[in-house]
Amino acid sequence: MGSAEARCKPQQKWESVEGVPATSLFCDHAALERALEEQARSKGGNVLAREWCDEDSDGNLSCRATVTRAPAGAMVPAPSPRRALGKDSDSLTFEAAKAVRIDLSPFVAAYARSPRRGAEVLEYPMLPVGQVQLGVMRARCEPKACDAEQAQAALRAAAGGLGVPSLVGVRCFELDDERTCVATLASSERDPDTDPRAH
């Protein structure tokens, strides 16, 4: 059935970026394994054999595997846990996320929290009490490359990759032949993972 291959380059520093693939903001081996599984299913396979992952000198991560299909009745490995690729659905595949570009304009000089799944990033119409604005993030793609739901899911996934828990005032629209979703990033001032006062 052939082979599957996926790659991405991590870009998880808190800094101003423009046009970075959404996959870069949640790039890790778990996300690449999910991408291999998606490719296997598209080829009619259900088993990944001889899987191999590597990191090159430029920091690019890549994973490869041979796609096969188990005989009827054979035990098939369970899929990898979902990793930051949507909101309780398969609306955002790894391939769709690659087509979405992310722009980030930070309001604060530094921000560091543990990454979280896109499904764990919450959306609010207004800034929640006790949270502060961190910056503005935009997800954009060509209309033929992703739909509005995928663009919005990519926004959540990218924010989650940076450890951001909240999106405020999400707006999606088409402008200059691009589908765009934009939101303000927000978080509590204290880190719930390290500061008991945050709870």
Terminus-to-terminus distance = 50 Å
Count of extended strands:
9
Q: Label the overall shape.
A: globular
| Proportion of helical residues | 10-25%
Write a structural description.
The protein is α+β, with helices and mostly antiparallel strands and 199 residues long. It has a domain at 94-198. The chain has 3 helices and 9 strands. The strands form 2 sheets. A 6-stranded mixed beta sheet has the order 2-5-7-9-8-6. Strands 1-4-3 form a 3-stranded antiparallel beta sheet, with helices on one face. It is globular. The protein starts with a strand and ends in an 11-residue tail after the last strand. The mean pLDDT is 87.
Short description:
The chain is α+β, with helices and mostly antiparallel strands and 199 residues long. 17% of the residues lie in helices and 35% in strands.
SSE layout and pairing:
Layout lengths: L2 E6 L8 E5 L7 H14 L4 E9 L5 E8 L25 H5 L2 E6 L15 E3 L6 E11 L6 H14 L4 E10 L2 E11 L11
Parallel strand pairs: 6-8
Antiparallel strand pairs: 1-4, 2-5, 3-4, 5-7, 7-9, 8-9
